[in-house]
């Protein structure tokens, strides 16, 4: 099954995503709480897909997306965003994000989006 790197500054959100994805049979490659950690972990873990929160301290999800795409142009990144942040999502898609998930997370939507991005 695909390896997923979960990136969110809120431990509760990481745990929620981890439970949804693990329950659907995905491997959790790792977790990061900000964009800086995400970029470093991406280099070492080489996950199949990354769930990336948009708003985080130290480095935003958009900046982490840019850095990861500069390291690996084929990186599969799914942005996680709150309702009302459509403008940011459009920017992320232009920069190479493959999809997005709206918070609060609904398990079927999360699983569907991840499977779509990894091509299952």
Average pLDDT metric? 95
Largest sheet: 5 strands, parallel
The proportion of strand residues reads: 15-25%
Helix content: 40-55%
Principal-axis shape: globular
Task: Describe the protein's architecture and organization.
This protein has helices at residues 11-23, 35-45, 61-71, 86-94, 107-118; strands spanning 3-7, 27-32, 49-53, 77-82, 99-103. The protein has 120 residues and is of the alpha/beta class. It has a five-stranded parallel β-sheet with strand order 2-1-3-4-5, sandwiched between helices. Helix 2 packs parallel to helix 3. The longest helix is centred in the first third of the chain and has 13 residues, at 11-23. 34% of the residues are buried.
Short key terms for the protein model shown above:
120 residues, five-stranded parallel β-sheet, alpha/beta, 5 strands
Concise summary:
By secondary structure, the chain is of the alpha/beta class.
Task: Give a topology summary.
Elements: E1 3-7, H1 11-23, E2 27-32, H2 35-45, E3 49-53, H3 61-71, E4 77-82, H4 86-94, E5 99-103, H5 107-118
Parallel strand pairs: 1-2, 1-3, 3-4, 4-5
């Amino acid at each position: 099954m695909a390896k997923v790197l979960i990136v969110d500054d809120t431990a509760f959100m990481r745990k929620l995503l981890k439970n949804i994805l693990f329950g659907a049979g995905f491997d959790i490659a790792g977790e990061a709480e900000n964009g800086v950690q995400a970029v470093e972990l991406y280099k070492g873990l080489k996950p199949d897909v990354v769930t990336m929160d948009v708003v985080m301290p130290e480095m935003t999800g958009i900046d982490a997306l840019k850095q990861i795409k500069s390291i690996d142009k084929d990186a599969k990144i799914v942005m996680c965003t709150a309702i009302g942040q459509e403008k940011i999502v459009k920017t992320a898609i232009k920069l190479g994000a493959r999809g997005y998930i709206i918070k609060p997370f609904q398990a079927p939507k999360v699983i569907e989006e991840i499977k779509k991005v990894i091509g299952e």
